[in-house]
Amino acid sequence: MPEITPEVIKSHGLSMEEYERICQVLKRSPNHTELGIYSVMWSEHCSYKSSRAILKLFPTQAPWILLGPGENAGIIDIGDNLAVVMKIESHNHPSAVEPYQGAATGVGGIIRDIFTMGARPIALLDSLRFGELDDPQSRYLLNGVVAGIAGYGNCIGIPTVAGEIYFESCYKGNPLVNAMCVGLIDHDKIIKGIASGVGNPIIYVGSATGRDGLHGVTFASRELTEESYEDRPAVQVGDPFMEKLLVEACLELEKTGCIVGMQDMGGAGLTCSTCEMAARGNSGMELDLALVPRRAQGMLPYEVMLSESQERMLICVKAGTEDIARKIFEKWDLHAVVIGEVTVDGMLRVKDKGEIVAEIPAKSLADDAPVYQRPQQKPAYLETVHYLPDLPLPQDYNNVLLKLIASPSIGLKEKVYEQYDHMVQTNTQLLPGKGDAAILGIKGTQKAIAVTTDGNGRYCYLDPYLGGMIAVAEAARNVVCVGARPLAITNCLNFGNPEKPGVMWQFQKAVEGMSYACKIFQTPVTGGNVSFYNETEDMAIYPTPIVGMLGIIEGQRVEGMGFKDEGDMIVLLGETKEELGGSEYLKLIHGKVSGKPPQIDLDWEKKIQATCLEAIAQGIIKSAHDCSEGGLAVALAECCIVGEMGAEITFDSIFIEPHYLLFSESQSRIILTLEKKDLEKLEEIASFHKVTFSIIGRVKEGSLQINDWIDLRPSFLESHWKSWL
Amino acid sequence: MKWGVIVFPGSNCDHDCYWVLKHSFNQEVEYIWHKETNLAGYDCLILPGGFSYGDYLRTGAIARFSRVMLEVEKFANRGGIILGICNGFQILLEAGFLPGAMLRNKNLNFICKYVTIRVENEQPPFTNLTSKGRILNMPIAHMDGNYYADKATLEELNRNNQVIFRYSTKDGRCPVDANPNGSLDNIAGICNREGNILGMMPHPERCIEKQLGSEDGRVIFESIMASV
Question: In this predicted structure, what is the pLDDT of residue A235?
Fold first, then answer.
């Protein structure tokens, strides 16, 4: 076994202080295997050592939250003994060096987090960020990531129903691949990741263990460099067919009542699943590595413990039920073996052919990683970036709108989502591209859920606190626009190197903003993931928190954003202000990423959403669409394209310049259509909630006309909307 | 009548087919495991969509060797009705129950979207409640749906009216640009000469209720029920 030298310690990503701490816990020096085990569990990726203290700001409780952060996924009550299990997680670094497998295994990993709770996975979402598409590397990454998501999700039979993709040069060497999975479960079927009951056997099932993915979590816990491409072996290879068998077999086993606890082997593999299950169960665990199925010869205990081979599950069953489990796994042609048992002493004891190779208190690995209060400092760029000079008015507004709608970040992602099976399981009741959130029917009930992901990195770059609030507000607005009441979020926080004070300041502010918004909207955080070190030698990414929002539909809904019938009144809920800072218009037309992002008053936002939701509940709303990137003009164009209708929009008294009116990204705005006879009802609802709205026009056949600025046919807009890829 | 939905490892539309038959049509239906050796009592078998054995090899190439396929063959020879959807169609081709083969989609990508297909023959049990020329709105979701057959086979298919569906425009024409995957002659579904085995790439089980975008899949199941 290699000697433990300062170089060895450093190469494991551990500081000397951390090493000292390990020696204190063990009351001796760790051997090489133990050092490896600590290094992965105390890595940023597994331990959240830089973020843990700040994450405590998130509200996590509400009467409908059955399980908050700390388990493999959060669980939200939706009534009728049913609950939704959800989580989002990043796979940024692996996707940067090997896009197909990086994205595929990101999907595979998040699916395991859901069915390990006993839930059937019913939907996938993906939030993606790449460099600008004129860079061939970014195009290669986009194609590879999309193919990887499709390859895994389609094969396993879970529909990919929603997501977003944005392009900014800051993501050039470090794309973001955040995958979210949503599952459905009965309240009484919830399984936790615990091992308890002395003598209960620990079953290993799934793929054999190989040398793939060694130190994947350590790889994820440092910046990307040229040499990162040599770390390609740290990226694993996905086998969706194997995982499909695991889903079916584990859910079949769940029905027998044999399971005490279950956890997948994801990041940090066997090490993480064993010590976390033991720690949660206040137990110990003894393993014999000689029993672990392997796919490579001569693997050392170190390698077996740290391997991140995919599609493996660890299950603690009640003693005496091993045969029941074995029969089910045999039926599904899966390899399952008992590799250890639950013990009483709280130690993770790892043997290899009878010899003890590691002996560590399980809780010291799972719960007692160091917690850092990293220094924070407001980054210097924020002193100058808010300046915005007077902008010249465009000559031709038609031309500007066409450019905006054809920009990759705004354009329709049809060529992407058509590669994803978004209909399998036959719950998808609002197809991608048709509305602001996906709607999934819950079979056997009249209910449906709405899900979306959201996050604007540019806003967070310009003002992380504001950007954090907007991420939550917009996600809530999106589910509201299809008629769903927001219930809870999961989030993935993508940031740069936390050892840099500027990054840590951004992180703190973004979390504060999100936390405040979650409190206002009563959407607690049920869990998620922090991804630091999203930097290349050239630059850090924009701070990019991504929100995955769940909403519930119990009555009326809206069938998307498309305008429906000639003569319908078009109403704008909310107000447009002189807010071009951080807008797509500013970047695309004026080449600037600067200014202040749009302001948001969360109490006002909540009233706007309440008005929209109540109007939908009363059945008077025929379409709804929120105004976001590109502003009102883009939102109206999308309503026209999707509905294959035109509109006549007139602004009579104009208090602000047309480019503000058309392209400001002012928050808290929703475009609604309704029949004229229902305007009175909308007035009642709006005045009850003390919000304003304006009638801005009517739906009609033909083109989209806005004063004498815009006159474009929907089919022409559509061809531009679809032209980006 | 009694339906059986065959479950291969990696099938993933098996639950959808089962749900539709049981809850939308109140039919008697059971899952049939791929190792099953007895298919007595069934009137119609469905080979559902999915990725049998991961489809890491040619689609359907491994599933065709499943034990149950020996029984499926006997069932077919007895005149039993067999509907292969998507991966099920691919398996039927590999097993030689239907002529031709599947190539990768022309654009080399997986394609999931609603398409329109035209009914070419209303004689078989799968379409007898429709009429020739009727347009159906159904989703496809596949990587390998680019149907191919040699010239002689295609001539025979046409001569015997074995082409049941073609990809078409909404107004019933079949130009190249109505063809999503490059399929020969816009073919979306074919049956055997006897007319009791149908393979189709579109998914009728995904369009049974309005909320899912279309109800046009109903007529396929209703036709089968009407003919048994």
Answer: 74
Dihedral, CA of residue A646, residue A650, residue A656 and residue A660, to nearest 10: 0
Coil, strand, or helix at residue A597?
coil
Residue in A239, A332, A424 closest to B141 by CB: A424
State the virtual CA torsion across A647, A652, A655, A661 in degrees, nearest 10.
Answer: 10
Which domains, from first to last, does chain B contain? 2-227 (3.40.50.880)
Residue with tokens 């760029």: A381
**Closest B-chain CA to A415:** B111
Shortest CB distance from A245 goes to which of B9, B20, B139? B9
Please say whether the dihedral angle defined by the alpha carbons of residues B135, B136, B137 and B141, taken in this order, is positive or negative.
Answer: negative
Q: How far is CA B126 from CA B7, B16, B44, B145, B228, in A?
A: 21, 18, 11, 20, 11
Assign A428 to helix, strand or coil. Answer: strand
Closest CA to A504 of A545, A466, A532, A538: A532
Q: Which of A373, A356, A495, A410 is nearest to A717 (CA)?
A: A410
End-to-end CA distance of chain B: 7
Per-residue pLDDT band at A236 (split at 50, 70, 90): confident
- Supply A573's token pair: 């809920």
On whether the CB atoms of residues B38 and B71 are closer than 8 A, the answer is: yes
| CA dist., res. A319 & res. A626, Å (int) | 54
**Does residue A426 sit at the B interface (CB-CB below 8 Å)?**
yes
User: What pLDDT digit, counting tens, does each position of A532-578 carry?
Assistant: 999 987 788 999 999 999 999 999 999 899 999 999 999 999 999 99
Is the CB of residue B139 less than 8 Å from the CB of residue B16?
Answer: no
Residue-range domain boundaries for chain A: 1-52+191-371, 558-725
Please give the angle made by the CA atoms of A663, A667 and A673, to the nearest 5 degrees: 80
**Helix H or strand E segment including A501:** helix A501-521
Tokens of A412: 């329709």
Which pLDDT belongs to residue A510? 98
| Residue A207 CB partners (closer than 8 Å, separation 6+) | A239, A242, A295, A309, A310, A311, A312
Give the separation between CA B72 and CA B192, rounded to whole angstroms.
14
User: Looking at the domain that runs over A558-725, which CATH code has it been given?
Assistant: 3.90.650.10
Within chain B, how many helices (H) and strands (E) appear? 5, 11
What per-residue string of b and e applies to B164-197 under the rule 16 or more CB within 10 Å gives b? bbbbbeeeeebeeebbbbbbbebbbbbbbeebbb
Summarised one tens digit per residue, pLDDT across range A626-649 is: 999 999 999 999 999 999 999 999
Supply the CATH classification number for the domain A1-52+191-371: 3.90.650.10
Is A32 marked active-site? no
Per annotation, catalytic residue among A12, A32, A91, A689: A91
Structure tokens at A67: 């399980």
Which ranges in A204-342 belong to alpha helices (H)? 216-219, 240-256, 269-280, 301-306, 322-331
CB contact under 8 A, A240 and B51: yes
pLDDT value at A312 more than 90: yes
Give the helix ranges, DSSP H, for A27-135.
Answer: 32-41, 44-47, 52-55, 92-97, 99-115
Contact across the interface for B112 and A443, Cβ inside 8 Å: no
Distance of alpha carbon A369 from alpha carbon A359, whole angstroms = 17
pLDDT at A218: 67
Q: How confident is the model at residue A266 (pLDDT cuts 50, 70, 90)?
A: confident
Q: CB of A217 within 8 A of CB of A46?
A: yes
Q: Which of B13, B17, B44, B86 is catalytic?
A: B86
Instruction: Give the N- to C-terminal CA distance of chain A in Å, as an integer.
Output: 53
- Asked if the domains A1-52+191-371 and A558-725 are classified in one and the same CATH topology, the answer is yes
* Edge-to-edge strand list for the sheet holding A312-317: A259-264, A312-317, A201-206, A336-343, A284-288, A347-352, A355-361
Predicted ipTM?
A: 0.97
pLDDT of residue A234: 66
